[in-house]
């Protein structure tokens, strides 16, 4: 079940998003919009505020009171819509990328599309946090959005893990924060290696592709003893060196090989290669070394 915001506004909080859904007061069904299974922000946690709301998916309906929390799967094959609101009801929706939620997907799927009262505990804490975003007019005055995003993830994970554990859906403990970071770092590295030829490959584009902040991306690479840019440059130079030593690519010019691996400027490629390997790329091609 995927909830869409009528005006499309969304507040970015680091790697997560917040939006507000305001359905019409009279019954007014909307055609659900399908969401691809690869939707980057798969899990959506909604808090109903200020009235009651009814959500519809296929022929099923979910009635929610003010203060109820709901979990939806944006990668589900069919969509959903809010079809009725009583009072000034709205839903504050927290959009969570899948990699930030360590609770197993099968457990989360068992918790979707049903109202969950925000009782004392993790639910009440998450509900109180989301309630603070109910008025979009206050969004421009917010600061420290990255830290607010981290807090949102921590509260949401605590809430979802608590529910899953209470219902016996977790057979093993959740992975540690370090294990989650290592898994994300592997994902980031794989993305970089698949896109080394892109001229626009930078910390900003890498972070955006994984719905994290540039600051958090640099934190992931702290144990690598290289900055993000240096790690990318090393991988590019390794690929270029391999091409220069490949006899089957002898007809390709040095500049062409540099451009293939993200060095559009031939002089800059030559300087970077010489600094890394002690010789310019043309000389290395004539006398390749291990």
From TrEMBL:
<dbReference type="InterPro" id="IPR020449">
    <property type="entry name" value="Tscrpt_reg_AraC-type_HTH"/>
</dbReference>
<feature type="region of interest" description="Disordered">
    <location>
        <begin position="17"/>
        <end position="37"/>
    </location>
</feature>
<feature type="domain" description="HTH araC/xylS-type">
    <location>
        <begin position="186"/>
        <end position="287"/>
    </location>
</feature>
<dbReference type="Pfam" id="PF12833">
    <property type="entry name" value="HTH_18"/>
</dbReference>
<keyword id="KW-0238">DNA-binding</keyword>
<protein>
    <submittedName>
        <fullName>Regulatory protein</fullName>
    </submittedName>
</protein>
<dbReference type="InterPro" id="IPR009057">
    <property type="entry name" value="Homeodomain-like_sf"/>
</dbReference>
<dbReference type="InterPro" id="IPR035418">
    <property type="entry name" value="AraC-bd_2"/>
</dbReference>
<keyword id="KW-0804">Transcription</keyword>
<feature type="compositionally biased region" description="Pro residues">
    <location>
        <begin position="23"/>
        <end position="37"/>
    </location>
</feature>
<dbReference type="InterPro" id="IPR018062">
    <property type="entry name" value="HTH_AraC-typ_CS"/>
</dbReference>
<dbReference type="GO" id="GO:0003700">
    <property type="term" value="F:DNA-binding transcription factor activity"/>
</dbReference>
<dbReference type="InterPro" id="IPR018060">
    <property type="entry name" value="HTH_AraC"/>
</dbReference>
<dbReference type="InterPro" id="IPR050204">
    <property type="entry name" value="AraC_XylS_family_regulators"/>
</dbReference>
<dbReference type="GO" id="GO:0043565">
    <property type="term" value="F:sequence-specific DNA binding"/>
</dbReference>
<keyword id="KW-0805">Transcription regulation</keyword>
<dbReference type="Pfam" id="PF14525">
    <property type="entry name" value="AraC_binding_2"/>
</dbReference>
């Amino acid at each position: 079940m995927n909830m869409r915001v009528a005006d499309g506004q969304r507040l970015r909080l680091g790697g997560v998003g917040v939006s507000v859904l305001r359905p019409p007061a009279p019954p007014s069904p909307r055609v659900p919009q399908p969401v691809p299974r690869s939707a980057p922000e798969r899990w959506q946690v909604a808090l109903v505020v200020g009235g009651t709301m009814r959500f519809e998916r296929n022929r099923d309906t979910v009635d929610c009171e003010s203060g109820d929390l709901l979990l939806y799967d944006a990668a589900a094959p069919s969509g959903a819509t809010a079809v009725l609101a009583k009072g000034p009801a709205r839903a504050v929706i927290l959009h969570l990328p899948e990699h930030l939620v360590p609770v197993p997907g099968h457990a989360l799927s068992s918790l979707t599309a049903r109202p969950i009262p925000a009782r004392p505990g993790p639910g009440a804490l998450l509900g109180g946090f989301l309630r603070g975003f109910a008025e979009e007019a206050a969004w421009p005055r917010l600061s420290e959005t990255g830290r607010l995003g981290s807090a949102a993830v921590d509260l949401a994970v605590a809430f979802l893990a608590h529910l899953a554990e209470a219902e016996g859906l977790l057979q093993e403990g959740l992975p540690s924060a370090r294990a989650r970071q290592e898994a994300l770092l592997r994902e980031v590295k794989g993305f970089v290696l698949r896109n080394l030829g892109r001229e626009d490959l930078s910390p900003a584009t890498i972070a955006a592709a994984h719905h994290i902040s540039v600051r958090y991306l640099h934190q992931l690479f702290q144990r690598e003893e290289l900055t993000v840019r240096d790690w990318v440059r090393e991988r590019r130079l390794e690929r270029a060196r391999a091409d220069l030593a490949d006899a089957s690519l002898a007809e390709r010019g040095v500049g062409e090989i540099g451009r293939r691996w993200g060095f559009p400027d031939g002089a800059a490629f030559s300087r970077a290669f010489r600094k890394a390997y002690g010789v310019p790329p043309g000389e290395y091609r004539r006398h390749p070394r291990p």
